[in-house]
Amino acid sequence: MIILIPAYRPDESLVELCKKLISRVSSSQSRIEILIVDDGSGEKYSPIFRVAEALSYRVRILTLAENSGKGAALRAGFIWCRENRAGQCVITADADGQHLAADILAVGVATELRAQQGLSAMVLGVRTVDDPLAPEPARAPLRSRWGNAISVAFFRLATGQKVIDTQTGLRGFTPELLPWLDMIPGNRYDYEFTMLLRATRTDMLIEQVAITKVYEPGNPTSHFRPVRDSLKIYAPLLGFLATSLAGFAIDTVALLSFVALGIHVIPAVICARLVSALCNFALNRVILHDGGAAPATRTSLVRYGVLAAGILATNAGLMELLTWAGLPLIVAKVLVEATLVPLSFAAQKRWVFGERETALETLRPDASFATRAPVAASQGELPPARRRRELVG
Q1: Phi and psi at residue 59, in whole multiples of 5°?
Q2: Cα–Cα nearest to 45, from 20, 8, 3
Q3: pTM of the predicted protein model
Q4: Quick check: 142 and 226 in contact, CB under 8 A?
């Protein structure tokens, strides 16, 4: 097992984490190594990395020439593991001490178990358990709480699956996933989120393991840039909303024009929607494609047509109903669009422009073990980490 820790300008928390991991590993004589990727921190931070490396023969430092982002550091670590430690599970953890050594190893055990079963699996350490030794329950910084809430909602909208902690940096990967991880786009925090999105389109198991919530006051060692990194993560949703607003404007102008010409509301809605449909198709095919497999243009166009027909029928029916009930045309239009836009986004992201990944079929040592399973989680709060997992279908 390789514990991969990307680090950019770390503090003593990195050294303390390594000490705790080494202490636990040494007592069990487990075959575990720690690979720390220095993401171009600079000479000022070299002493911290040297101290960590000197702790044990199990610790290795991989230094990048310049800062490229967490995603790039993770990718560099995955490539090193694939080339130098083939067949080993890889567990990623953060350098700021927000993951307990016991939880890191628990995720590692769960990952190795899946590998022994012949399954391709990504095991997520989700922060749901309060630390019993903490003076008061850990509370995430406001930006982290909002960020995770938005990420969870967006992820469920885009994939239909529920992941409790989409921002977790504690993840385990079975060996055959390493080439696939190298193909995920993104160099910063968007890399981890895109990885999750694309994982739902493969036959890998996504398993969730409850871990302890540990937060520093204000999260001072985090290098997450709230505006820039959030824009990268939510680019597909923001782009879709932008094209939807543009389509809404075109649709509304056309609708009002047709009604002014004396056309009945239902054929007016149909004609207006046809005017904006082709433009939306062309834009969304680019925006909603995350770099993975995509269906052929003809296939997407047929799917888009089917979806558009369904949305159109629903739109026309709701518009007729609301205007019949006495609502002004504009008010009815806004209400109907606000209802249908999220549904349209989810359908286009998952079905119209999404496609099942096939790369894992050729990467898995024995494809006969392939099992497509939903995200593993319990209906309520996850059990403690020592119980590790509960799968639901």
Answers
A1: -100, 130
A2: 8
A3: 0.67
A4: no
For residue 17, give both structure tokens. 């984490």
Residue 57: count other Cβ atoms within 10 Å of its Cβ: 9
One domain for residues 13 and 152: yes
Same domain, 8 and 55: yes
171-173 and 121-129 strand pairing? antiparallel
Q: Are 86 and 148 in contact (CB under 8 A)?
A: no
Specify the higher pLDDT residue, 329 or 77.
77
If DSSP codes are grouped into helix, strand and coil, which group holds residue 33? strand
**Side-chain-facing half-sphere of 125: CA atoms under 13 Å:** 31
Separation CA 340–CA 356 (nearest Å): 25
Report d(CA 296, CA 276) in Å as an integer.
22
Cβ atoms within 10 Å of 275's Cβ, excluding its own: 16
pLDDT in tens, 298-333: 777 788 888 878 887 898 899 889 989 998 888 888
Q: Is residue 48 part of a domain?
A: yes
Q: Is residue 384 part of a domain?
A: no
Q: Are 80 and 138 found together in one domain? A: yes
> Which long-range CB contacts under 8 A does 155-158 form with residues at least 24 apart?
155/193, 155/196, 155/197, 157/237, 157/342, 157/345, 157/346, 157/349, 158/197, 158/236, 158/237, 158/345, 158/346, 158/349, 158/350
Q: 233 CB contacts (<8 Å, ≥6 apart)?
A: 151, 189, 190, 193
Dihedral Cα 189, 192, 194, 200, nearest 10 deg: -160
Within 10 A of 294 (CB to CB), how many other CB atoms are there? 15
CATH code at position 25: 3.90.550.10
Q: Which domain holds residue 15?
A: 2-233+365-369
Q: Give the model confidence (pLDDT) of 349-364 as tens digits.
A: 667 776 555 445 444 4
DSSP lists the bridge partners of residue 121 as: 205
Residues with Cβ within 8 Å of 155's Cβ and at least 6 positions away in sequence, in order, are 161, 162, 163, 166, 193, 196, 197
**Assigned domain for 168 exists:** yes
